[in-house]
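#struct-pred

JT: dropping the chains for the assembly here, can someone run the whole complex?
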Amino acid sequence: MYRKLFILFLMATPGAFAAEVDFAGAWRLNVVIPAEPLVGLLELEMTDSGWIAWVEGGPTPVTISGQQIELLIDSRDRQGYLFQRKLTGQLDNGKMTGVMTSIDVVETAAEFGEDRSVWTAVPYVFSATEFPIAEPRMLKGIWVPLRGVDFRKWSTAMTPAAIEWLSGYDARMDEPQKRCVSPGLYSAVTWSFPFEIVVDDDKIVMLYEAFNLMRRVFTDGRDDPGFYPNSSMGYSTGTFENGELIIETKLLTHTIRDFNGEPISENATISERYRLSDDGNRLSVILTLNDRENYDRPSIRRRVWTRQNDVVIFPFECDPDAFFRQLYNEGRMQEYINRTPRRP
Amino acid sequence: MQRFAISAAIATIGLALLPRIVSGHHSYAAEFDRNAPMTIDGVVTEVWFRSPHVRYYISVTDDDGNEVLWDTRGLTPTKLVRQGWMKNTINVGDHIKLYGHIGHTNKTIMSIIDVTLPDGQVLTSRSVAYDIKN
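RK: done, full complex below.
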């Protein structure tokens, strides 16, 4: 009712208010930083209570007035310390442009030019890749991660159940990797370790340095056999569409989204869209977590790698001994044991 | 529309809780105080060069003359090795100086930012995965 009245009001009001309507929709955010640009999906929706914004599926405070917009995107640095990216700008001829400043920026983010920059946003539409993946062998090789691309958006659209679960999470004791247990696919793909792609007739094999993780992505159209056990890396199938490799993964275990601890349920699915750059030596992925038990909206992350076949993938010899020794020395072993039932 | 309103409310509550979540849910931020870096120097009593993080146990003499064992840690070995920081770069018995972040509650743990070796060479425990060279 109120929405209809508001829209009627906007239609009857030329000038500044008319521009506000044009903000609605999906936008491709691009923030210029020296290493790699930050790229993200910005969604703007008008509701009864005003504008709502989402960046990479996470809630983002927004103010829109006339053609002006201000966004406050919470992000974390590489150690988990939080800072805010404040984007101010304006909409003109279907494109947003403006300035990014950071609030409470931490040293490791400022060091890479994330404290101040410029940004743009254009309508988010699918664009065909200029270098289509014509056949799987084009993906063979060793891929080394680059900085940038991912906003490292902190907050997500968690359900009340997920918020409740996270409120009891203690990273010092519950983080899987502390005890040499992999948090799984969503983390493995976004972590800053190299990985190798090996191609077979019916599958692609991805070998990750982190935690010696590996996965088979079946590309011959087969589905899971029906008795495939759930695991942190899940069961993956891949198809090639519009020059991209699209991987769908299911049969996951209850784990965490990243080292921040947000939950992933065993009924979640993960979609990955891989594409190559125009010289074929840069690989990028958009990673979407679909988990209705824990998130009202899909959560998105991104990663970019360069092909460096002279890099050697090292073994990842993990031993939890030092972690348990620390717990013992701090007198927290019993607390650790007591937390076993809720540990992912 | 009601769903949007609920999501917005949850988002608002979530954002309001952010500072608490940050301090409590990422193991590094939860465990180490980035506002209080400090330097210690002492003698290496044990080298633990394994994932997920290398550790050096350091015997440090405090202001009262007591020997205190510190539990210090750096990056994962695969990242350190790419920077030339090997298992035998630091050995038991070496007298080294370490600069890093101290634990919030446990004041004898440190996340290493850099290490000064006995010969004066300074090594940095910082990820350079974006520029990997074997």
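JT: nice. Chain A has two domains: 2-123, 136-320+325-329. Chain A is about 15% helix and 40% strand.
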